[in-house]
Recover the amino acids of this structure.
């Protein structure tokens, strides 16, 4: 029975000191496996996991459910339902919505065991394990707080429970259908347990085309880390990570991403992008914390740009007026415009301030205008200004028709915009479209569909 270990963390001195700061306060007498009586929590677990999914949730302290050569503490009973609500919302239901019970029930783990701390051993901590596709262990449940961003999402060096859950379930999928052959050749710099060493920094791992330090352990951990990161941390995190890598590493990461997407489709008939969207929505619905702000994604390079459709439902009235005024002038000049314009980064790898406005006519003639964005992440604002134009024909077209485009250009460059999601205006648009709100009146100026990669 092979156990697959997720994250091992260094700095045991710091971790021991953390243990001293908070008393455990777990009454182990309530966890006697021979004498306990099922209570309200047990009924909730049966109703939500055992009966519908044949998953037994083990939370009463059983020393033999974990490695006996490592130190571990019992779980606080008050934390059991909150974290299992998250497991249901963020792990089970997204898969169920994309597939069905007939597919999912046979491969779901039959047991999920909860532990209060990680498994401590020398200078390492285990944060998650999967045992032969039958049991998943989740650790550090006593620290869990659904109101905490770090608790829900973790950090790049220390993943949280939902990353762990998706990581370990990926191992279960791989036990049914292995990682595609040749995956290990994309980044061949695997180093086994030496991944914990100081020589394998986060920057080193990224430079070699790995999504985390732990991904350098072996190809199976690499694949599981790619999958869980894309699902839980999400596409915008991944885009920003790739943009900040060098060209060779970025190409490797993109190739791995495609292998993951293709694997889910070929092996299980699962639309990975649909699953990814379900997981992201589940996290943002389940956790009352701000998972991501558009301004942060914009500034990190998660987006390549926006497509702004003048005829989109609930499009900003001021933008529509400006666009129609420009269209009337260009049409009079013989060039009626397409309704959708593109606002994209010139090169998001080098900066996230230089953008280009691309407008096309019905006959595919293009007019381009370079814009410079002044971005305030703390203030959540963007201010555009016309910048030096390029030398391509499209820029020459723009210069020739700049007077006719004045209503649209003036609108874009005289306003200061705040970026926000618009799901209260356009339902189900979160992570799909971003609204640019005029800070002078807090009204929606315009919104655009996000483009990525």
């Amino acid at each position: 029975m092979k156990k697959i270990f997720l994250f091992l963390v260094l700095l045991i001195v710091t971790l021991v000191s953390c243990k001293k700061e908070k008393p455990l306060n777990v009454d182990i007498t309530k966890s006697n496996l021979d004498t306990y009586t099922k209570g309200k929590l047990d009924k909730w677990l049966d109703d939500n996991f055992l009966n519908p999914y044949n998953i037994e949730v083990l939370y009463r302290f059983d020393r033999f459910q974990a490695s006996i050569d490592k130190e571990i503490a019992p779980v606080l009973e008050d934390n059991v339902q909150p974290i299992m609500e998250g497991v249901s919302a963020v792990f089970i239901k997204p898969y169920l919505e994309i597939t069905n019970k007939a597919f999912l029930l046979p491969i779901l783990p039959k047991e999920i065991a909860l532990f209060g701390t990680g498994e401590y051993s020398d200078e390492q901590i285990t944060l998650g394990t999967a045992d032969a596709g039958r049991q998943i262990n989740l650790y550090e449940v006593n620290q869990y707080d659904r109101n905490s961003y770090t608790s829900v999402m973790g950090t790049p060096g220390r993943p949280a429970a939902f990353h762990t859950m998706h990581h370990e379930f990926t191992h279960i999928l791989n036990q049914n259908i292995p990682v595609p052959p040749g995956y290990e050749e994309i980044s061949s710099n695997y180093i086994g347990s030496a991944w914990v060493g100081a020589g394998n920094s986060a920057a080193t791992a990224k430079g070699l085309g790995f999504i985390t330090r732990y991904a350098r352990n072996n190809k199976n951990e690499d694949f599981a880390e790619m999958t869980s990161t894309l699902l839980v941390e999400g596409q915008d995190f991944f885009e920003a990570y790739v943009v900040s890598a060098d060209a060779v590493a970025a190409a490797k990461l993109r190739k791995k991403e495609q292998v993951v997407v293709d694997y889910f489709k070929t092996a299980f008939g699962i639309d990975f992008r649909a699953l990814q969207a379900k997981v992201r929505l589940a996290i943002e619905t389940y956790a009352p914390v701000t998972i991501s702000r558009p301004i942060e994604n914009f500034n990190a390079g998660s987006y390549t740009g926006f497509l702004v459709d003048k005829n989109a439902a609930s499009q900003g009235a001021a933008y529509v007026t400006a666009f129609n005024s420009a269209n009337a002038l260009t049409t009079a000049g013989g060039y009626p415009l397409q309704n959708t314009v593109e606002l994209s980064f010139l090169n998001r790898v080098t900066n996230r301030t230089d953008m280009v406005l691309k407008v096309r006519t019905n006959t595919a003639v293009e007019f381009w205008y370079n814009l410079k964005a002044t971005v305030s992440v703390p203030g959540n604002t963007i201010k555009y200004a016309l910048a030096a134009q390029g030398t391509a024909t499209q820029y020459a077209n723009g210069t020739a028709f700049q007077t006719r485009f004045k209503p649209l250009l003036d609108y874009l460059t005289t306003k200061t915009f705040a970026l926000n999601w618009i799901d209260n205006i356009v339902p189900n648009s979160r992570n799909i479209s971003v609204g640019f709100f005029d800070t002078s009146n807090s009204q929606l100026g315009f919104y655009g569909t996000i483009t990525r990669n």
The chain has 15 helices and 15 strands. Residues 240 and 302 are 5 Å apart (CA to CA). The two ends are 41 Å apart (CA to CA). The chain has a mean pLDDT of 89.
